[in-house]
Design goal:
The chain is an alpha+beta fold and about 375 residues long. It has two domains: about 220 residues, Beta Barrel (Thrombin, subunit H); about 120 residues, Pdz3 Domain (Roll), CATH 2.30.42.10. Helix content is about 20%, strand content about 35%. The chain contains seven helices and 22 strands. A six-stranded antiparallel β-barrel has the order 1-2-3-6-5-4. It has a six-stranded antiparallel beta barrel with strand order 7-8-9-12-11-10. Strands 14, 15, 18, 19, 20 and 21 form a six-stranded antiparallel β-sheet that branches. The termini are far apart.
Length: about 375
């Protein structure tokens, strides 16, 4: 016991501890400090499903998956990947999601506040008072807009169930588009060589100061190898902040929409070849009744006995050219609700009929096709 030591022994012990600490390089000391400061914000996430036994009729709970997440703010929101809580290949949400933080012996059940499958993000909610009785420690949120290739990064997560594991690396590329869980590409993702493995999904990617710069979401797995090969991807924090704020503020399926669907890019290319001219933009395929697009009388593509009449084509949003469908979808979804956008529209794909129209996106769930 320390109270049994003499003053001289205590001074010697403290000297040895100081000497041991001095062996850390400045870089090591900074990395240790970042981990110790940030790891209490990282969550281990376990999903389970209940199934009734065929013969006994008893209901049993089976593990469904595991991943990582992190505390967004002290009131209880926890951010993770959608695919961590999706519960299966069809994206069926599981019966139960449980969360565990560092230093807590027990997992706590969490509610799913909302999710955005196309961005592979989900927001959970826990009762802070049930997690060890301590205040939740939110992660420090940074920015991904000014990142540079070569910056040091740290990933904290639960690879293969090994909770609160730290790996390090660099930002090895920027602006990667990866295929999201919902089938659409997630734009401008970060590529890193920090070891990312199954179980790291949903965990934070941090800069050298411990600020969140991305959410680890996917690894490159050649030949189906489900382990780290030095290429991992993270959703940029600027996208995370926008999507998470929308979910927390407005609930599920509240992303901005103008109420239209667009012709597939492949079909648009086919019509362009048939017409012998370029059709760069997003061609309106259908318009939701009562939507902002309907109010502007945007014209959808229509079938006639003698062929197809092309609908209006959106060629720019706020002066930024639209080359393909994803450009339009991102421009709308990354806008602020109730802030008008300026659309450049080529009526019926006729280059002689170009108009500039003002449109204000609404919450997607308010449109009739979501009711």
């Amino acid at each position: 016991m320390i109270d049994e030591l003499s003053d001289e022994q205590i001074r010697a012990l403290l000297a040895r501890l100081e000497t041991a600490g001095a062996k850390l390089t400045p870089t090591e000391r900074e990395r240790v400090e970042v981990f110790e400061r940030s790891s209490p914000s990282v969550a281990f996430i376990q999903t389970t499903v209940e199934q009734k036994a065929r013969f006994s009729g008893r209901t049993n709970e089976y593990p469904l998956g595991a991943g990582s997440g992190f505390v967004w703010d002290a009131s209880g929101p926890i951010v993770t990947n959608f695919h961590v809580v999706a519960g299966g290949p069809r994206g069926d949400l599981p019966r139960t999601v449980r969360v565990k933080l560092q230093g807590c012996d027990e997992q706590v059940e969490a509610a799913i506040v909302g999710y955005e499958a196309d961005k592979d993000l989900a927001v959970l909610k826990v009762d802070p008072s049930r997690l060890c009785g301590e205040a939740l420690r939110p992660i420090e949120v940074g920015s991904s807009s000014a990142l540079r290739v070569g910056q040091n990064v740290l990933a904290i997560g639960n690879p293969f169930g090994l909770d609160f594991t730290l790996t390090t690396g660099i930002v090895s590329a920027l602006g990667r588009d990866i295929q999201g869980f919902g089938g659409r590409p997630i734009k401008d993702c970060l590529q890193t060589d920090a070891a990312i493995n199954p179980g790291n999904s949903g965990g934070p990617l941090l800069d050298s100061a411990g600020r969140l710069i991305g959410v680890n979401t996917m690894i490159y797995a050649p030949s189906g190898l489900q382990a780290n090969v030095g290429i991992g991807f993270a959703i940029p924090v600027d996208t995370v902040r926008r999507v998470v704020t929308q979910i927390i503020s407005f609930g599920q399926n509240a992303r901005p929409s103008i109420g239209l669907s667009v012709m597939d890019d492949t079909d648009r290319g086919r019509f362009a070849r048939s017409l012998g001219r370029e059709l760069e933009g997003a061609i309106v395929a259908d318009v939701v009744k009562g939507s902002p697009a309907d109010a502007l009388q945007l014209t959808p593509t229509r079938s006639r006995l003698n062929g197809i009449i092309l609908g209006d084509m959106i060629t720019a949003v706020d002066g930024v050219p639209i080359k393909k469908n994803e450009d339009l979808l991102c421009a709308v979804e990354e806008s602020e609700l109730e802030r008008p956008l300026m659309l450049t529209v080529m009526r019926n794909c006729d280059p002689e009929r170009i108009e500039t129209l003002e449109i204000t996106p609404v919450q997607r769930k308010s449109l009739t096709y979501e009711q």
